[in-house]
Design a protein that fits this description.
single chain; alpha/beta; Rossmann fold; Alpha-Beta Plaits; 2 domains; 5-stranded parallel β-sheet; 5-stranded mixed β-sheet; 10 helices; 21% strand; binds guanosine-5'-triphosphate; phosphoprotein; Rev_trsase/Diguanyl_cyclase; Sig_transdc_resp-reg_receiver; EC 2.7.7.65
Length: 294
Amino acid sequence: MKVIVAEDDPVTQLLISETLKRWDYHVLVAKNGLEVLALLAEHGDVQLFLLDWQMPELDGIELCKKLKTSRGTSCCYIIMLTSKKATENIVQALDSGADDFISKPFSPEELKVRLKVGCRIIETENSLLHQAHHDGLTNTLNHRAIVDVLSQLWSRSVRDKSSLAVLMLDIDYFKRINDSYGHQVGDYALKHFCKLVKQELRPYDSLGRYGGEEFAVCLPSTEADEAMIVAQRIRTCVESHPVEYDGLNFTMTVSIGVSVFSENQQSYKELLLDADRAVYDAKSKGRNAVVFAK
Ligand SMILES: Nc1nc2c(ncn2[C@@H]2O[C@H](COP(=O)(O)OP(=O)(O)OP(=O)(O)O)[C@@H](O)[C@H]2O)c(=O)[nH]1
């Protein structure tokens, strides 16, 4: 696990960082709060912090407040390390957002177990957050999460006048798959479908389960013609990769509606609605088709 150690005394900094490396932590060091913020610009995934209270420029308490307010939903666990010992100091540290407090001089064994507690809490929170945002079957974003992503991207497009496309994907005759082969095979087919779609997307595109066998894809910085190409690629890929399960082999197809951001839209909901209408058109045109929203 990555950990940022902030300590202005070079000897103590070296002692702590070498000890943590021996315990298999990936250690990043800073000598004040500002350096921690600079490190985070490059290592935004760090969640564990060991902060000295008294540091020049930006001290541990002020840094705690900044980290807790700026990191949104991403979990971070802060251990405050200080020679202060009074109850009022502990209260102040925890009140400013620290999760734990160790008084110097401390025993390495105590530091080791407190770091372990931090890792345990970070892992639990990460797993809870993942469950809150993902669909349990397909491991794609769930309905609320994909709508949140779209709403944020839409606001960014309004602000920057940048392009944005949405694809609405609806698997064709999915009920027949369940009816013919059973629900378990239907579940497998949904997972297979999502794997195929994901391999056609860029790392910064988002796929989410909008409902049952309907999925939404957000394509930031994507114009209409590029979105149509991606949609056609997905359609072809699904059609040409049959579901293979326990001796079964059958082809699945998908109907896709495509819509793009325009400055006339009042909300991201219009973008979704347009894509939804286009899927409906694709279905009425015979399915296994891509339709651009008018
Ligand atoms: N196995 C499985 N089936 C699901 C799941 N969620 C929804 N479904 C099924 O998906 C089917 C969707 O059926 P319909 O809405 O009639 O659509 P369709 O059969 O795909 O037909 P068209 O969309 O018109 O092409 C229903 O039978 C649902 O029970 C799921 O998580 N697992």
